[in-house]
Amino acid sequence: MAASAASNSNTTVNSATETQALKRSSNDVGWEYGLLVDPTNLDKVLCKLCNKRISGGVYRLKQHIAHVKGNVAACSKSSLEDKDKCMKALMEAKDKKKEKKKEDKERRDEVRILEEEEFENDEVEVVGSKKRPRFLGPMDKFASGIDPETKIVTTRQQNINDALWKERTHKVHLWLARWVYENGIPFYAIENDAFRQFCEAVGQFGMGYRPPSQYQLREPLLKEEVERTKRSLKKHEEEWALTGCSIMTDAWTDRKRRSIMNLCVNCRHGTTFVASKEDSEESHTGQYIFNYVDKFVDDIGSQNVIQVVTDNASNNMVAGDLLKEKRPTTNH
Q: Are 146 and 162 in contact (CB under 8 A)?
């Protein structure tokens, strides 16, 4: 009897462990209705309502619950509430994808290194399927492509173009990955908008682009970027004068034990980094912080500053009292 009870207990524990492994620790509403068939394969999902196995992941599962026709059979046991919940999640995902696509297009449209006349004169080859045509840049006229004289079926031509596009993209990805690995570039840098715009600019330039020298990066290009940044801040400065702004300051210590103070300005247009000061030799007393912030209040314009925001450390509280004493109209 004891052995039988122990065996049943172990079976229950193992079953609970397996079930937990098949659950996903995700906020996606779809996982309320499904489990993974195999914890190593996110594509195969089991509907908890009707026990149907579905290929296509949690997105397809939500279509199944919401009775979206076309890709998967409808769930026979989903309630009206279940349908509405999954349909709402699907629509939100669709809207988010559209917005991301729109933002990506806007970023790419900001990049234009060719004049209109030059762009019109360049030979541009369209590559892709009917659903999503892709455009190869000017450099592609130097690469070996598909012979336009070859008479083949249009569908086959599109398939070859798709394969050509994927092959070229993969080769470019390999070169980029090698540069990232060899130079220790953080992986999240690939999501940076400026990097994506750089890729667009290189594509527009075409074959033969040579990167700038170290001197160009240190001197002329840096100065140009500083001036561009100043110009882009003009609308923020105009907003400071129009509706006011908040100064935000914070101090922290980096891995080398250096004490650094940052200062930012926030307004309706967003937050702008203004200055950073490394001063490990000085004690960050209330008087020291007051002098640092007060100078920037004058630089920004005391009439524009509505409040100064810090944390509630004792030295910041002292600095706040000094600011109130000198500038009674500014909140802290």
A: no
